[in-house]
Amino acid sequence: MTGLMVTGVPGLPEITSGDNIAALVLSSQSTITWPDGSVGLATGDLVIVTSKIVSKAEGRIVQADSRDDAITDETVRVVAVKTTPRGQTRIVETKHGLIMAAAGVDASNTPAGTVLLLP
After folding, report:
1. Which tens digit of pLDDT belongs to each residue from 23-51?
2. In 3-state terms, what secondary structure has residue 56?
3. The pTM is what?
């Protein structure tokens, strides 16, 4: 088969601080089944991971009473502010030099009172 095929890696555990993501993916690769019937990873395959799981593996989860305060702490400068019916979104430059919404601070699917920072 040629072309682009995308799939998740079934069976990966919740990533926590200190986890070796590459080792976890390699140990779970036999659970990957492709549309052509092949299994696992092959030479030339690319494995893409989200910054969220890298942040978790690096222990970049921090206590934060307010996501907005965490965004402020990660911000070097505010580039723009967009107001919508859902609230405000800040486009900022991060300490990494990246320009993005909310400084990459992620509060989704994290324990209450915590946020994930960029890796």
Report:
1. 999 999 889 988 888 899 989 889 999 99
2. helix
3. 0.81
